[in-house]
Amino acid sequence: MVPQAPGYGSPVSRLRVATFNIRHGLGTGGTLDLARTARVIEAIDPDIISLQEVDRNLERSGNEDQVDVLAAMTGLRFHFASALVPGAGAYGIALGLKKEAGEAEGVVESFPLPRVDDEESRVAQSTRFRGISFVATHLSVRPGPRDVQMMDLAKRLRYLTPPAVVFGDLNASRRGLGHLVAAGLRPGPKHATMSFWRQVDHILLPPGLGDVRFRTIPTDASDHDPLIADLEVPGARP
To answer: What is the per-residue pLDDT for 13?
Structure first.
């Protein structure tokens, strides 16, 4: 008998989701090494991954287009969304997708999040990938603006085809995810993604999925460790 994902009534398949704040390739020892970042991503072997703090043509990261470099090194399709445009370069988030043989190109859309006062601008990306709606983002470090941005994300979930997943560097503890939890998402067990047993990176999932396994990969490639979730998802509907 083919296993069924509770609540969806269709065959299940495996999907690996990950989020990783790469800190533009700057490791904990203070050295810039994007090849090291790529090796971490390859070790994760994600089907879909959200990267934060990605540079394009900025002096601090050697004027490289990190999106193109990581795509070439990992074989993933990366879609970039700029949050800041300082001078001739850009800084933001990137959504990476694994392309399987015969798989149609997914559409990735980006949209700005609400900006409060002089807060740094923030952006999110959304796509429909293998039967799931994904929203990837990097939220404010300040509680007030972050709360407004999270409320905006929760409202947008109403217009997405379920099931939907929100993931990224949310800069919030598990207790600070109230708006998304109220929208029906769950964060899974705690896994520290920064020092001092802090978790600010999250993968929030809808109810009704089958077996879900969370883990992190310790690394010195960034001041964050990547968070990974292996999901059971519904297969293609007739």
So the answer is: 84
Residue 125 belongs to some domain of the structure? yes
Return the HEC string of 142-172: CHHHHHHHHHHHHHHHHHCCCCEEEEEECCC
SS3 of residue 104 by DSSP: coil
In a domain, 5, yes or no: no
Contact 145, 120 (CB under 8 A): no
Distance CA 45, CA 98 (A): 9
Structural domain containing residue 18: 13-233
In a domain, 84, yes or no: yes
Number of domains in the chain: 1
Q: Which value, to the nearest 10 degrees, does the dihedral of the CA atoms of residues 80, 82, 86, 89 take?
A: 20
Round to the nearest angstrom and report the end-to-end CA distance of the chain: 18
CATH code for position 113: 3.60.10.10
Residue 143 is assigned to a structural domain of this protein: yes
User: What single-letter DSSP state applies at residue 24?
Assistant: G
User: Could you tell me the CA-to-CA distances from 80 to 4, 54, 69, 155, 223 in Å, in that order?
Assistant: 35, 8, 12, 23, 21
Tokens of 204: 């929030």
What DSSP element (H or E) covers 36? helix 34-44
What pTM does this model have? 0.91
Q: Say which residue the tokens 């694994």 belong to.
A: 98
Distance between CA atoms of residues 162 and 156, nearest Å: 12
pLDDT digits (tens, 9 = 90+) for 118-176: 888 999 999 999 999 999 999 999 999 999 999 999 999 999 999 999 999 999 999 99
Pick from 194, 142, 187: nearest CA to 167: 187
